[in-house]
Every structure is written in structure tokens, then in C-alpha cells.
UniProtKB/TrEMBL annotation:
Membrane in keyword set: yes
GO cellular component, as recorded: plasma membrane
Record's keyword terms, sorted: Membrane, Transmembrane, Transmembrane helix, Transport
Organism: Aminicella lysinilytica
Gene3D superfamilies to which the protein is assigned, alphabetical: MFS general substrate transporter like domains (1.20.1250.20)
Protein known as: EmrB/QacA subfamily drug resistance transporter
Amino acid sequence: MTKEKKLNFGLILTVYLLGIFMGAVDTGIVTPARTVIQDSLGVNANTGIWMITIYTLAYAASIPVMGKLADRMGRRTIYLLSIFLFGLGSLLCGLSHNMGSFTFLLIARVIQAIGGGGIMPVATAEFGTTFPEEKRGMALGLVGGVYGVANIIGASIGSAVMDIFGTTRWEFIFFVNVPIAVFILIAGFFALPNTREKAQSKIDGLGIGLLVIMVLCIMYGLKNIDFFNFTDTLTGTDVYPYLIAFCLLMPLFIFVEHRAEDPVMHLEYFRNKRILITLTVAVITGIVLMGLVFVPQMCENCMKIKTGDGGYFVIILGIFAGIGAPLSGRMTDRRGPKMVLSLGFIATIAGSLFLIFVTTVYPGWITVIISLVLIGTGIGFTMGAPLNYMMLWEVDLRESNSALATLSLVRSLGTVIAPAIMVGFIAHAGAGVSGDLMKLMPTEINVPKLPYAEELNQAMKEQNITGMPDLTAMTTVKIDMTSAGTKDSDVTIPDSLLNELQNSDVTTVTDSAHNMAKYMFEEMSPKITAKIYDGVDQGIDGVNTAIAKMDTATAKMKKGQAGMTKGISGMTQALAKQDAALTKMQKGRAGIQKGYAGVSSGIAAQRVLHDQLSTVYDYMETVGPAMPPAPYASRLPDSVKSGLSPAVVTMLEKVYSQQQLKGMIDGFADNITTLTTKVNKLKASRDKLDKGIASLTAARAQVAAKRSKLISQKASMTAAIAKINSGEKSTRETLRQMKVLKAAVPGAFKTAEKNYLKDVDSRSAKIESTFQKTLNIGFRQIYAMTAISSAVGLLLLLLYRRKLRKDS
């Protein structure tokens, strides 16, 4: 009693509770910063949860070790060592931000957890054994209250720290522990008694080692089970080997503990029905407590506030847990732990059900506060005093450290299993968010009308240029957002965007959807524009080919036209020569004809003279000598003489004999023969010339016809060249229009993107509402789990029929 009088219980209580507060705050303080930290260090949500899970694993593994070491080395020694490790781990956690290493953060969290594992059991054992019995209930109630309140308001403190220093300086949520740890180390060194057990049995090193391995195996294995895909994950290499190892080590651990002088865990605990119920209820309280981890996110979703600010709502939980914890201690002293725990579970069930059926359906300040008040009160009644009482009253005083360490260890089992399942609820709801949001996305991209689209479509048909897409149809492009990220999609969504969407909160989900839509548009538009470019390029190639053909045809025609012009000129010259030759030939023929006519006339005249003289000769032959010798002109009777031409009469005036007359007749006969020969020659010449004229005339007609045909062809070719030139001008205009259209495509799609994203942003309210409702499904499942767990706890308490009293 003398020693007790020297102890300053108020200061001892303060130092221990401050340590409990610091250790418990650190679980909650990380909660609002979890997504910020994982994004900062470049890991996804499944990996990021390890910053909480690994702390819980290492914390659970260290509890029995630290509890047993406290029995040997003294509670103050182990408590201050735990505070030192916790402070060192906090410092290293903060430095991991500067190092940019998530692995380093996890190592630092393990150091923190090893220290944290020695804080709660040692402090609880100290209050439960050294404090006067009349103060013990209050002290144990304060332990549970501080632990629960710290767990709860840790999220609020995290939000406040990030608001003060900014989300980019999240290391300060760990640095705040360092000065607190330094203060506790200094104050504890002077104020705390170093209580230890007098027995010096051999330490159970092998049992401690096996227990640590078993705890890590069972908790790691259970943590990796996806309860939505239970069979597949149970057979995964990160689950079943650890569960098998736990099962194989269990018989060995039992064997070692039976032979140990001072076992790390008394197996008798598990043969005592009341202790077994106590430990099972402890698991349930761990599960219920982990539901608080998601309260900030739930509040953010229901109240549509940004990530980090949800931690402030946890203050409500802290206030009512802080009120309920010491009250539960007093009530436990008076009414016993069973009633207190029952009230706590009932309040938790009421709060969880209210949250499921009211808060998530009608989110608002009032409904959120009511659910948090009920849950906070329930936590205050179930954490701390009742379970500590139930455990301490069933064990000897010298086993208090081990008993409370076992209680903390078993409670940690619930805190490991619960987040694995609860994160699964959120993850599955988050996975559904993607599909639900994709259905809200606009399904069409409205592209401004491309210049000359209609004209080019018509030109392509008229010019028979293939390969061009229907440019007028490009004003509306379908986009299938529902298949985004699936094998049916033309676009592969990167994990970073999917994680961003799944890790969004209700205030950032529109931005995430905006980023998703922007990415999909940027991924799809190059394919669409490439199709347009390819088609336009094919059209340009076709037009250039047509222009080249036109140029070739024009050049060929112009060359032919030049040949025709030369031919026409040659033919014109030939016609002129032919005309000159014809003129000359016709002139010669006229001369020949004139000579022919003259000779023919001479022959006729000579023939007349010859015939008349022959008549006279014949007459004179008839009359003969009877005629007197005189000129024949005077000797002829008038009847004969009247038939003669005057020329013959004149000629007969000189004729006196038949012989003379004969000579004259023969002379005329010779002249006629000569002239006949001459006229025949002239006729032959004339006929020959007529043939030449006819031939030349025919040749001239052919040349003239050819010339006329060539002139006509030249005129046709000139018209064809004009037509080709006109067509080429039109085709070159088409080419210009194609180039203008092609140049306008990027601008058109930039405008389309702006309009599309504006359409996405205009659906912000619907997107937020859909996100909120879908994610609320996960929160309903989480708090259904806490309600069911609490109901199971109530049923177990029905089996706990004995009101425990510790024998004096």
C-alpha cells in the first residue's frame, strides 16, 4: 500500500492513455489519406490497402511477444521501447514520401506496428492489475474509450493535417507522432512503475516464434481471400499455402505450449467456455471497428464532399464513443459486462440498419449524423472495459499481460478479416461504377460539317473516283462507351484511368469520366481521321492521276493537232498546185481543141473541094472530048456549075484538062490525108489531156475531201482539248477542295472533342448521382456486415449466462 501511495495514478493514466491514443490514431489517420498516398507512390487500390493491412498483421504478431516480454522485463521497459519503435516508424513513414518508395513505407509501417503491439496490452494490464479496484472500471473504460475514440477521430485528424499542409504533404500525418512519442518517453521514464512478474520461468522462445509465424500465416492467408471469388482465391498461391502452414504448425504449437514452463499463450483459454465466448466477441468487435475505416469515404459519398473532408464527420463518432466508453466502464462495475456489450451491439445494429435503409437512400446531414451517433455509441460500449473485465476476471493476476495480449491478438483477427471483405464490397461496387457510368456517356460525336463535303461526294461519283468515304456521313460518329476496356472495344483503357475512375469520389467522378471520355476520343479520333485522310489521299491520288491523264491526252491531241495543221497546209499547197496544173492542162486542152476544130474544119473544107472537083472530074469524063478546049469553069453547064462552091468555080477557071483536074483532086486528097493524121493526133492529145484532167480532178477531189476531213477532225480535236481543259480545271478545283477539307479535319475533330466533353460535363449531376447510388451499394454491404456481426455477438452473449465476479 505504501508503494501505491507513492504512485501518481493520474500521471500514469495520462502517459499510458496518451500512448494508446497515439497508436490508435495512426490507424484512422491513414484512412482519409489512403488513396492520396497510393496515388502519390504510384500503386493501385489493391496494393494501397496494404499500408493498413501490413500494420494490422505486424501489430497482431507483436502483441503476444510484447505481452510476454513485459512480464519478464517490466511493463515500463517494454512500453517505452514500444513507444520508441512507434515514433521511429512514424518518422520513417513520413520520409518514405521523399524517397517515393511504397516498399519503404511498408517497412516503416511494420516498425510502427511492432511498437504499437506493445502499447495497448501493457497499458490495459497495468490498469487492470495495479489500479485500485474502485478505479479499475473507470480506467479500463477510458482505455477502451481512448482507443475507440482515437481510432475514430484519427480520420478527422488526418483530414485536418492534409487541409493544413495540403494533400501533397501527406508525410505530416506521420510526423505528428514524433513529438508525442518524445514526450511520452521523457514523462514515462520518470512517472511509470516498472511492474514485472516475480516468476522467472524460462521464456517460451519456440512458442513465441511459432505463434508469430502462425499469426502471420493465418492473417495473410485470410486477408488474400476474395469472398466474392472464394473458390478461385482459396486455391491461389497467396492463400492456401499459408492456411496449410497454419494448420500444420498448430499441432506443433500445441505440443510446444504444453511443455513450456511459461507458455506464450495459455491453451486453457480455449477450453474455458466463457473465455471462448469473450474471444469470439472480441473478433466481432474487431470486425465492427473496421467498419469505421470506411466512414469517411461513406460520408464523402453521401454528402458529395471531396476526398479527405469525410474524416471530419468521424468526430461525431469520436464524441459519442468518448462518452460511451467511460460510461460503459461505470456501468460494467454496476451491471456487468454482458448488459453493456448487449447495449453496444444493439446501438451498432440500429446505426448500421439506419445507415443502410435511410442514410444511403436519403443522404444528408441529419441522416448521416443520426447513423454516426448510434454507431459511435455502440463502439463506445463495446470497446475496452467490458471485454477486458470478462478476460481479466477469468485469469490469474500474473497472467493478465498474456490474457490481454491474447484478447488483443484475437480482436486483431477481426480487424484483418474485415477490411479484406469490406474492401471487396467497395471494389465490386466500384467495378460496377465503370459500367454504369459508361451507359451515361454520350454515344455520338458530332463533328462539324467538313468544307466541300457534299461537293466532293458528288464529284467523286461524277469522276468515278473510288476509295473515298461518305464525307457527309462524318458529321455523326458513333462511339460505344459501354464496351470501354473490354475485348469488344477498339480502345484499350489503361489501368491508370480505370483505377482513377474506380478510386474517384463523388466530387471527382465527373472529372474522371471526363478524362476517360477524353482518352477514348483521343484514341478513336486518329482512327477516324486516318480513315478520312486515307480516303481523301486516295481521292487526291485519283484526281492527280486523272489530271496527269488529261495532260497526257491534251499533249497528244495538241501534237496530233499540229500534225493536222501541217497536213492541212500541205494539202492546201497541193490543191493549189493541182489547181494550177488543171488550169494549165485545161488551157492546153483548149488550144488543142481549137487546133482540132481548125484542122477538122480544114478537112471538111478540103473534102468539099475534093468532092466537088471529083464531081466535075466525073462529069468531064462523061462528056470527054466533046467539050471544047476552054477552062472548065466555062465549059460546065449551069446545072453542074450551080452545085459548085464559088471557090471551086474560081479554081476551075484555071483548069483545062482532066489531068490537071486530077492533080488538083489528088492534091486535095493528100491534104485531107495529112490533115486527118494531124487531127487524129490532136484528138489523141486531147483525149490524153482529158484523162489527165479527169485524173487530176479526181486526185484534187480526194485531197480536198481529206483536207475537209482533216479540218473537221482538227475542229473536233480543238473542241475535245477545250473540253479536257474545262474538265481539268474542274478536276483541279476538286483537288483544291480535297486539300482544304483535309486541312480542316484536325480543327473539326478538335471542335468535336470540345463539344463531346462539354456534353459529358453537362451530365455531371447524373454522373454524380449514379456514382453515389452505385457506391452506396458497397457501403450498405459493409454495414450489413457490421449489423450481422453485432447480431451474432448478441446471440453469443445469450450463451454467456454467468455474471462474472472476481474472487477476492
